[in-house]
Amino acid sequence: MTSFNKHKILNIHHSNSGIIELILERKDVLFKPGDCMAISSNDAKSRPYSICSGINDNFLSFLIRKIENGQVSKYLSNLKKNDQLLISEPFGWFSPLKNNTNQKNIFFATGTGIAPFLSYLKSYPNNPPDSLFYGVRKKDDLFGINNFTMIKNLYISISKEESKYHNGRITENFSHIPLSKNNNYYCCGRESMINDVRIFLKTKGISKNKIFNEVFFNG
Ligand SMILES: Cc1cc2nc3c(=O)[nH]c(=O)nc-3n(C[C@H](O)[C@H](O)[C@H](O)COP(=O)(O)OP(=O)(O)OC[C@H]3O[C@@H](n4cnc5c(N)ncnc54)[C@H](O)[C@@H]3O)c2cc1C
After folding, report:
1. From the DSSP assignment, how many helices (H) and strands (E) are in the chain?
2. What's the confidence (pLDDT) of residue 13?
3. What is the CATH number of the domain that holds 199?
4. Whose CA is nearest to atom 27 of ligand 1?
5. Distance 47 CA to ligand 1 centre (A)
6. Quick one: how far is CA 165 from the chain centroid?
7. Does residue 71 sit in the same domain as residue 34?
8. pLDDT digits (tens, 9 = 90+) for 15-50
9. In which domain, by residue range, is 32 found?
10. Does residue 99 lie within any of the structural domains?
11. pLDDT tens digit string along 111-168?
């Protein structure tokens, strides 16, 4: 049975677009970028959330989209600083490895699917991925821009609002994906984006064992 521990909320920020940034005391939690923790509501329902903070931060942070009538995310959205939350130990199978000269990392994220990649960027600031493809609906959904300065190829897409970024879907930038059988392709977020990436890379001859997924939401 999963064991849960109490952690105090150090801060909670609400973006205009309904994403909550939850910052918790870390205690002695050890994790690697890509790991999740299950967060429990007061009626013992729990959901996994990807850790967004870096391995050297002295707090744990999460990016959580508030879902209309969502049992856990709605509960979390009503919490306040200094409230206590029950969270599990870290777990997960999605672990972006550090780049090396032969294998470049290519990251794809939609929405809060940026969280594990932010954890990677904060943990290994001198070892950024070669490319990040990041799609959101609105400008207020964008998180972590300051962590992207070291990324050589950055493709941000905003689908529902005009901005200085590409206006449209993340898929519209796929022609820029660096293709090599040595690269590692990591995708996180909405299932439909992940399927689009897999299909595109398959048609380009990239082996499926070089593509790694974390599906947050089937849609
Ligand atoms: C490994 C893993 C890591 C995850 N990490 C994160 C994370 O870092 N941040 C995060 O916000 N979520 C993350 N999720 C999703 C999260 O676990 C919950 O599924 C989500 O918060 C909804 O839970 P809920 O209890 O609020 O809604 P529920 O009561 O479970 O669902 C209500 C309805 O909302 C739909 N729904 C669920 N997610 C979405 C969505 N994103 N958009 C629209 N509709 C949706 C469901 O299909 C369902 O019909 C992750 C999921 C997995 C599997």
Report:
1. 3, 12
2. 97
3. 3.40.50.80
4. 70
5. 7
6. 19
7. yes
8. 999 999 999 999 999 999 999 999 999 888 999 999
9. 4-88
10. no
11. 999 999 999 999 999 999 999 999 999 999 999 999 999 999 999 999 999 999 999 9
Domain count, the chain: 2
Q: How far is the CA of 99 from the centre of ligand 1 (A)?
A: 29
Helix ranges, the chain (H)? 71-77, 115-123, 191-203
The answer to whether residues 80 and 157 belong to one domain is no
- pLDDT value at position 1? 65
Residue 146 carries which side chain, given as an amino acid letter?
N
**How far is the C-alpha of 97 from the C-alpha of 108, rounded, in Å?**
15
Q: At 49, is the secondary structure helix, strand, or coil?
A: strand
pLDDT number for residue 122: 97
> According to the model, what pLDDT value does residue 102 have?
80
**Residues 170 and 203 grouped into a single domain:** yes
Task: Band the pLDDT of 93: cuts 50, 70, 90.
Answer: very high
Residue 200 CB coordination number (10 Å): 16
- Residue 216 beta carbon below 6 angstroms from any ligand 1 atom: yes
Distance CA 218, CA 74 (A): 19
Centre of ligand 1 from the C-alpha of residue 111, in Å: 11
Q: 155 φ, ψ to 5°?
A: -125, 100
CA gap 125, 119 in Å, rounded:
10
Q: Is the model's pLDDT at 219 over the cut of 80?
A: no
Q: Is 190 in the pocket of ligand 1 (CB under 6 A)?
A: no
Is 208 within the bounds of a domain? yes
